[in-house]
Amino acid sequence: MADNYLERKRLEYEERKKKWLAKKGKRTSLKAKPTSNPQED
Fold first, then answer.
1. Most C-beta atoms within 10 A of its C-beta, which of 6, 29, 31, 34?
2. How far is CA 21 from CA 3, 29, 31, in A?
3. What backbone torsions phi and psi does residue 26 show, to the nearest 5 degrees?
4. What does the pLDDT average to over 6-21?
């Protein structure tokens, strides 16, 4: 194996994680606002 195998895998992981978090952040910002529940008497 190459000497920098683990380092390269770590960098690839960090890039995938960054993209996933960015994608996740976009999706959560588009969530519908929660509706208020009417209070029951």
1. 6
2. 29, 12, 16
3. -65, -45
4. 96
